[in-house]
Amino acid sequence: MGMNSSSVKEDFVLVGFSDQPNLEKILFAVVLVSYLLTLVGNTVIILISSTDPKLRTPMYFFLTHLSLVDICFTTSIVPQLLWNLRGPAKTISALGCAVQLYVSLALGSTECILLAVMAFDRYAAVCKPLHYAAVMNPRLCQALAGVAWLSGVGNTLTQSTVTLWLPRCGHRWLHHFFCEVPSMIKLACVDIHANEVQLFIASLVLLLLPLALILMSYGHIVKAVIRIKSVQAWGKALGTCGSHLTVVSLFYGTITAVYIQPNSSYAHTYGKFISLFYTVVTPALNPLIYTLRNKDVKGALGRLFHRARDLGS
Q1: 28 exposed, middle or buried (CB, 10 Å; 0-12, 13-18, 19+)?
Q2: By its UniProt entry, which CDD domains does this protein fall under (predicted)?
Q3: Quick one: CA dihedral 247, 248, 251, 253, positive or negative?
Q4: Is it the case that residue 23 has pLDDT exceeding 60?
Q5: What is the pTM assigned to this prediction?
């Protein structure tokens, strides 16, 4: 089946929040502030993680990748969203929609795997402290990061391509604020049951499997801390793992509602707001979560500001 001509020539209409014009004005401000926080916060994390010698550890190596994913993920969505929120024009070109679909799905999938990799790193830090440096050696860290990126690329090449090749018979009104697989397949004018099954299977592999690995890692961490029976160990484990657990809860708690049951009444009614949370809000909160609770990051920020001040003077 070839790609239909309408998918190549016609622009898509992103309905988004156009049925609530007063809400659009509020959302414009919220999205703009969140995007600026995302850019600044994640850029600072990348900067201090790559320049501060005390942060050249596996944890901050993966955190750098997470920050890069978040910057690119939101950038693939937010500029178009801001443009659509500020005026009556709600269209996106067919090429722009395809690029947005491929890039956002690749980065979202990469983040799913990356969060699981970071949970394994926390497991190694807490449960194998004496062998941590040997276990999480640079070669393994690079390989795990590579697996995360390649998984994202592989998933989007499959899911996005299949989605774009569905015939839409002129349907181009997308009831969403960006081009996302669950909403795109609803434009098809053929039976999409096979596509929904494929999406569900992909979601099991890239959402629920990493989530299961994360829960297993933290199960082992809890057992290790309980065996130690030390208040100090509990505090250290909470400090080591608390930020990551918060990020996992925010990201997985929202994205699974959209991808695991894309046709549920809940996902249909609140899907746009759920997607807004994991595409715009969560990437902005991640740097704050990792910096507010982390003494190492606070210390690195202090050293960075001191260096900048010394250079300025």
Answers
A1: middle
A2: 7tmA_OR2B-like
A3: negative
A4: yes
A5: 0.88
